[in-house]
Design a protein that fits this description.
The protein is α+β, with helices and mostly antiparallel strands and about 130 residues long. About 15% of the residues lie in helices and about 45% in strands. It is built from two helices and six strands; from the N terminus they run αββαββββ. A six-stranded antiparallel β-sheet has the order 1-2-4-5-6-3, covered by helices on one side. Strand 1 and strand 2 form a beta hairpin.
Length: about 130
């Protein structure tokens, strides 16, 4: 699934680790990712967390997509910062799941993300985008 994710690759996101229900990804904030305040645009931070979420919720095999997600930004990131996002499964029930993702710059928490997933298929996912 991640290999076919053009959006994540276009942002320079790298998959560092994946296991059942977990994933770790990394991205360097570029000048093109900054907003008018000179900090990383929240959409890019959300996308990084969403990619970790997508990898973690699809790690079990069946095609799984996002049913919803929210993010809380706790500190700014700037151009040149290397961010990691660590996703961890909190609960799976029926076709649904809950995943938490922490976005870090070193040891500083940049954002906390909670994603809600929904399994829609039985095969391996090949799509891109939110939760796929």
């Amino acid at each position: 699934m991640f290999a076919a994710d053009k959006a994540s690759h276009g942002m320079g996101i790298e998959l560092l680790e994946i296991a059942a229900g977990t994933a770790l990804v990394r991205m360097t904030v570029t000048a093109d990712m900054t907003n008018g305040h000179g900090t990383a645009h929240g959409g890019y931070i959300f996308a990084l967390a969403d990619t970790a979420f997508a990898c973690a919720c699809n790690s079990h095999g069946p095609v799984t997509v996002a049913a919803g997600a929210d993010v809380t930004f706790t500190a700014p990131a700037k151009e040149g910062d290397v961010l990691t996002a660590a996703a961890a499964e909190r609960s799976r029930f029926g076709r649904s799941g809950i995943y938490d993702v922490t976005v870090l710059r070193g040891t500083t928490v940049i954002a906390e993300f909670r994603g809600r997933s929904r399994t829609i298929g039985t095969g391996t996912g090949t799509g891109t985008g939110t939760g796929q």
